[in-house]
Design a protein that fits this description.
This protein is α+β, with helices and mostly antiparallel strands. 28% of the residues lie in helices and 34% in strands. The two termini are 26 Å apart.
Length: 180
């Protein structure tokens, strides 16, 4: 499934690809402020990023690069992967890598557009799910504003910054289905 281009007021989303291979992207992944709560990062090189981007292209997953409309600047990524069609849900993930663009509403805008796409007739997913480190309070606040609810907490589940942290599992249900 190839991700469509999605336009919004301040941003647009297009398929993440080798076109996005850059030292800037590598720097995001190696920045401790950016990767603090990520499952990956901290040891990236251009070569490792190239292998990753090739796998994204080959697997044709719903993985978008977030670009600013005003200057085409790549500021982060958003994805729904994996998608479980049998059970009707997709796993959400976002990285706003360019920390100079934090706090400007881009993560929310990108999330709203991707969720709209997931809940549209073209995909018709009944539920978007995610896991977030409980200490990542800005992310938790964003997800709550988007309408995600807590479904459960995995206590002391993941090791982040040399400390075991709780992981909150959250979900947002498609109001157009009967699966709430």
């Amino acid at each position: 499934m190839h991700p469509p281009i999605i336009y919004s007021e301040k941003i647009y989303l297009k398929a993440l690809s080798l076109e996005h291979l850059s030292q800037q992207y590598v720097d995001w992944l190696n920045n401790p402020n950016v990767n603090r709560y990520l499952e990956s990062g901290g040891d990236y090189t251009l070569e490792k990023l190239e292998v990753f981007l090739k796998s994204v292209e080959q697997n044709q997953i719903l993985f978008w690069a977030i670009h600013l409309v005003e200057n085409n600047k790549h500021i982060g990524n958003i994805k729904i992967d994996p998608i479980n069609l049998r059970h009707g849900y997709g796993e959400y993930g976002i990285l706003l890598g360019d920390h100079t663009e934090w706090g400007k509403g881009y993560a929310r805008e990108a999330s709203e557009r991707v969720i709209e796409y997931c809940f549209s007739a073209s995909l018709n997913i009944r539920k978007v799910v995610l896991g977030v480190v409980a200490k990542n309070t800005s992310a938790v606040a964003l997800y709550q504003k988007l309408g995600f609810i807590t479904e459960g907490i995995y206590h002391n589940h993941g090791l982040y910054n040399s400390e075991y942290c709780d992981i909150i599992r959250m979900a947002l249900f498609n109001k157009n289905t009967n699966a709430v």
